[in-house]
Amino acid sequence: MKITIIDGQGGRIGKSVIEQIKKKHPELELYAVGTNSIATSAMLKAGADYGATGNNALIVNAADSDLIVGPIGIVFANALLGEITPAVSTAIGASKAFKILIPVNRCNHFVAGCKEASMGDYIRIAIEKIESML
Fold first, then answer.
1. CA 34 to CA 9: how far, in whole Å?
2. CA 20 to 30 Å from 41, out of 10, 48, 83, 125?
3. What domains are defined for the chain?
4. With a threshold of 0.85, does the pTM exceed it?
5. What distance in Å separates the CA atoms of residue 120 and residue 134, rounded to the nearest whole number?
6. For residue range 81-108, what is the model confidence (pLDDT) as tens digits?
């Protein structure tokens, strides 16, 4: 199973997801794909096995992933302060991968029905879903 974690900005969400997955499942191979080198570096330091940066890396890895994890903005064109290009959001949305999207109510979107919770709580819920799929 190819698990791809996507993040941008400083990579804080992706870093936390990778740390928690690796703590419980060190045998899993995790692919960290950042919109920028800072995000990719943070995720690699957290324990990702592979890392790549940029639009093409995002598009290529979305195509053959089985599971994609990241902030909800990865499916919105121009989200993450413009780091998610329309081509990237289209590639992620079109991917046959199961997507676990972590809600972040910023950048002009609001996820109706999401309870107010800490980022740590949202990441814990995402990890529980990942584990149920293994």
1. 8
2. 125
3. 3-133 (3.40.50)
4. yes
5. 21
6. 889 999 999 999 999 999 999 988 665 6
